[in-house]
């Protein structure tokens, strides 16, 4: 879903320059009198990671969620979003060997909707899944309207048509051709996506209603299972539920799993082509906190992001609000809480990380054992810590974050905060909710970048622990 309104280019640099961020600052009230003005990354005293910025040539690039993947060819594939009524999202790739960025296509055109004067395919909200030489993914809306204080599907202005609905697509790595597999149920956007690569089944959840559906590549059959979480984010009051952002697929048996705000784990059964709650286990854990599932301010007991680990055949995930890493053993079924993988500054403060939904940048490294997590830390202005998400989600501090790369060695059970991330010019990445790891261990993401007084979202890269 679309992020809150952004910092404007004119004030973002000034606010960033006023931030007082330091890994060495404690969270106690006794530190409030310390005024720490950090104009650039050179003054930062803690562990620091320097990110390289790429310019994809897309000035309209807006906040990206997931929308990344590393191909079997070693290239980094990504989608830059757009909230422009006349321009949809675009897909790009970076060749790490040549350091060249190439534009691959416009998603609206790939869906056959170019020139239709409809609200365009403004983003992809899902990561790429590769199978049989193709990258599979889906599209989402990028133009929204606020109705009675609530974010809704964009209302088309005069002369434009309504959003036609998200599409499942594939991109052929050899031919560069897109293939369209049709429109989502209810003409909604595709918020969540994954794929059973062995059996050729794609799975998705829609926004705003939370409809679960699957597409079978072999039979070209699409099946709609209906709403999975009351009325989803289209609901009001007691009917509201945040839609799960991650579908986990057991690549051994083809089962697909996702959650609800109440903590129910739902399973798609490939043998019966049905969906039902998992019996005997759920996400409602004391460690994760206490939540009202009808409150739109958080993800509730939903898991935030997950991946399937072939090495032990477990699903690993992070609960976004609390930042706890867990693993789910589908066959038992059983969830085991492993560790809190928030940043070190967040751990010292005892506070949640900055985004109320938690972070999407969570993925398994190429070694098959190291989980990578991009997460935030507390924000300090004039030496005082802002009061968590209630402050960083509003006003001039909106979107500010102290981005850290946390890794977790799964077999060893070892947590490491690898440090805070800065650009070469000293600025900090903002609105980071994407990650992919290159074959050599380089970490890539899609944050906001401010250059020459203008802000865009684009590709950045920095060395992960496997690279170093």
Cα radius of gyration in angstroms:
21 Å
Could you please say which CATH topology applies here? Neuraminidase
Main beta-sheet annotation: 8 strands, mixed
Structural class: mainly beta
Layout of strands and helices, then pairs:
Elements: H1 9-18, E1 48-53, E2 68-70, E3 76-80, E4 90-95, E5 100-106, H2 107-110, E6 129-131, E7 134-138, E8 144-147, E9 150-153, E10 167-172, E11 178-183, E12 189-196, E13 201-207, E14 211-216, E15 221-227, E16 248-249, E17 256-259, E18 265-269, E19 274-277, E20 305-309, E21 314-319, E22 324-329, E23 334-340, H3 344-349, E24 362-364, E25 370-375, E26 380-381, E27 384-385, H4 389-392, E28 404-409, E29 414-423, E30 436-437, E31 442-445, E32 448-451, E33 454-457, E34 460-463
Parallel strand pairs: 1-29
Antiparallel strand pairs: 1-34, 2-3, 3-4, 4-5, 6-7, 7-10, 8-9, 10-11, 12-13, 13-14, 14-15, 16-17, 17-18, 18-19, 20-21, 21-22, 22-23, 24-25, 25-28, 26-27, 28-29, 30-31, 31-34, 32-33
